[in-house]
Design goal:
The chain is of the alpha+beta class and 216 residues long. It is built from two helices and eleven strands. Helix 1 crosses helix 2. The termini are close together. 29% of the residues are buried.
Length: 216
């Protein structure tokens, strides 16, 4: 076999492996109800400790569930700042799931901003969301102008952490000041293990070996 042909074959095999790996990772969500679709319906304000949203618990303050605006996946989402009138409106949600110590995990999610502020159509609107798991954390800040119920301008975000125990709690929380009310919104949360480079390499080597043997 010519070297150029072998390189072409290797390139194609690596492309297939990459596509398969990404597809498998996208399907392997370790979370329950990552898009908040259950139990469904409209439910305004949820206080700390609430488990109304299947698989999730409200960890702090209050949040608003399924406000009714456009979502990137399904019809439900959460606003991490509770409604006006809440004693403590700066909220958060979390879920605990099984992990393997020292394994890396990728968290992807969609973030937007509650469009119901009176100033949102005339001023730049900025909100910050905190994300934490296994003693590691990150902050995500989003600024939007002109967001509406019909077009929330959702932005996809990604973060990676390394598990330290056999179970891990992932939390999303608002970093707004008290009495902000129109907070960062969250939807389509997916957690999946990051494939080990050695695993990908061995898979590629195996496919290349099989191909060469068959060609001979």
């Amino acid at each position: 076999m010519k070297c150029s042909n072998l390189l072409t074959v290797v390139s194609r095999i690596m492309l297939v492996i990459t596509c398969v790996t990404l597809a498998a990772t996208a399907r392997a969500n370790l979370l329950v109800n990552g898009s908040f679709e259950q139990p469904g319906g409209y439910f305004g304000n949820l206080p700390v400790g609430a488990t109304y949203i299947t698989g999730w618990v409200v960890t702090r303050g209050t949040i608003d569930y399924s406000p009714g605006w456009q979502c990137p996946d399904g019809v439900a989402s959460v606003d991490l700042d509770g409604s006006p009138g809440s004693t403590n409106n700066v909220g958060g949600v979390s879920q605990t799931f099984a992990t393997v110590p020292s394994q890396q995990y990728q968290v992807t999610f969609a973030m937007a901003i509650n469009p119901d502020s009176r100033t949102n159509n005339s001023e730049l609107f900025t909100r910050t969301m905190g994300v934490q798991a296994a003693g590691q954390s990150t902050n995500v800040t989003l600024s939007e102008l002109g967001t509406t119920d019909a077009n929330m301008n959702w932005v996809g975000e990604s973060w990676t952490f390394t598990a330290t125990n056999s179970s891990t709690t992932l939390e999303f929380f608002s970093m707004d000041a008290q009495n902000t009310y129109y907070g960062p919104t969250l939807d389509n949360v997916i957690v999946a293990p990051v494939p080990e480079p050695s695993t990908i390499f061995l898979t590629a080597l195996g496919l290349i070996t099989i191909y060469v043997i068959r060609r001979r």
